[in-house]
Amino acid sequence: MYSKFLNLDQEKQDRIINAAIKEFALKGYDRASTNEIVKEAGISKGLLFHYFGNKRQLFLFLFDYCYEIIAEQFYQKINLAEKDFFTRIRQAVMIKMELLTTYPELFKFIEEAYLEDSPEVKVEVDKKVKGLNDANFGKAYEGIDFSKFRDDMDIKKVLKIITYTFEKLSEEEFSKAKLSPTHHIDYEKVFQEAEDYFEIFTKCFYK
Question: One Pfam family for this entry, by name (predicted)?
Fold first, then answer.
């Protein structure tokens, strides 16, 4: 679908992508202006739609693009040979902190996409988010040494409790961000709260 755009030289691709990420992250989907995007990118509006078809397709392309970059970097850094569940999850948290510093614009765009209420893109973004979450939770549990968990516990139920807790934690933070004029998320505070839960879960569920 995006072959015409992907055949452009890298410098031109980057100009268009950076301009679009900046506009959508700053204003959200409905208020974002394709006029501002093409002005910043130094191309015509006709060319933008030649590459992406319409504003909606551009937004969804950017979501996939930003996620793929972050996911690629994440899985290059995480040690999936680590068998302790909570050590691996802590490792994932620290890598995310590092990536937030390295790719602030990409994370800002993804945050806005997660918070997006526009009916033009919400259903598709929600579907993408669910699929990505399911895939990532599967990878998070690969190779884990479940013998460390208490024998009198149902592991599947324990993992559901842990998963639901952090899903709820994320939902609460995104709900707060929606009410904030800047949509700011204090990730350091979130990660500290996550660490508190790690300590509780370790005491409750490990032998």
Answer: TetR_N
pTM of the predicted model over 0.70: yes
The b-or-e profile of 182-194 (16+ CB within 10 A means b, else e) is ebebebeebeeeb
CA 67 – CA 99 distance, rounded (Å): 12
Judge contact between 113 and 21, C-beta under 8 A: no
Over residues 55-102, the pLDDT tens digits come to 999 999 999 999 999 989 988 898 989 999 999 888 888 888 788 888
For position 39, which CATH number holds? Answer: 1.10.357.10
d(CA 207, CA 113): 40
Tell me which residue range forms the domain holding 95. 3-205
The answer to whether 45 and 107 have CB atoms below 8 angstroms apart is no
* pLDDT tens sequence across 173-195: 777 766 677 777 777 788 888 88
Per-residue DSSP letter, 149: B
